[in-house]
Amino acid sequence: MAGIEQIKSAKLNKYREDIWLVDLLDEYLGGTMDSPRSGVFHPSTLSNKCDRAVWLIYHGQMVSSPLEAVTQRIFQNGDYLEKRVEKWLTNLRILVGREIPVKFEFPPMSGRMDFLIKHELYGIMPIELKSINTSGFSKLTTPKEEHQLQLQMYLNMGNYEKGTILYENKNDQKLKSFIIEKNPAQWDSIIERCFKIQNMPEAPEKCTGARWCACRRVEK
Questions:
Q1: Cα 154 to chain center, whole Å?
Q2: Residues 184-202: pLDDT tens digits?
Q3: CA angle, corner 159, sides to 53 and 110, nearest 5?
Q4: Most confident of 28-32, 189-193, 214-218
Q5: What is the distance between the alpha carbons of residues 142 and 115, in angstroms, rounded to a whole number?
């Protein structure tokens, strides 16, 4: 019996993990993620419901955080997705622009639209591109709230009547797209929130974001 067990063990150990290579790549890709630029509100920042986090970022008091290798790979996958979609839109001859900057002066807001296209039905409009896993993709009957808010800011800052949020499933590359219309009432609430945060003398004590909200790294 001992001989049989040794054979089984040898078969199981035939393919060993290359820990050295994985560790080398993780060390290479790791780094530091700096907080967004202070003194201006960004769409990605305002998509966080936590006023404490937004206040800390706006006032330059959000700390940098370690950038794990797996997070870096996620970011790079997002970059490659954008390059693929850019090629599609270019070949279809509907691409108007890429990484289009938009700004608003009072309160100060700044962002970049992923794409600007010429839509057959709606004319010139922005695209907000997102990737999502199968679990999240299957639940998408409407766009995620934070993504809708980001696009709403681009519509109002860039003065577009409609835009679309385009999702790609990370696991099987299926697509979904949702048309979003400019909503003046929602825009007013975004501006009101910015002014409220600007006028706060200090950061709110309580985090109202997700458990991974960046503000939790900052001591009160």
A1: 14
A2: 999 999 999 999 999 999 9
A3: 30
A4: 189-193
A5: 20
CATH 3.90.320.10 fits 31-217, yes or no: yes
Rounded CA-CA distance 182/86 in Å is 24
Residue 152's DSSP bridge partners are none
Tokens found for residue 211: 């458990």
Position 13 scores a pLDDT of 61
CA separation for the pair 168, 177 (Å, rounded): 9
Looking at 34-95, list the stretches that DSSP marks H as alpha helix, in order from N- to C-terminal side: 43-46, 51-58, 69-91
What is the reported pLDDT for 77? 83
For 8-17, what is each residue's pLDDT tens digit? 555 556 678 8
* Cβ-based neighbours of 10, under 8 Å, separated by 6 or more: none
Residue 95 carries which DSSP code? E
Among 129, 152, 117, smallest CA distance to 43 is for 152
3-state secondary structure of 89: helix
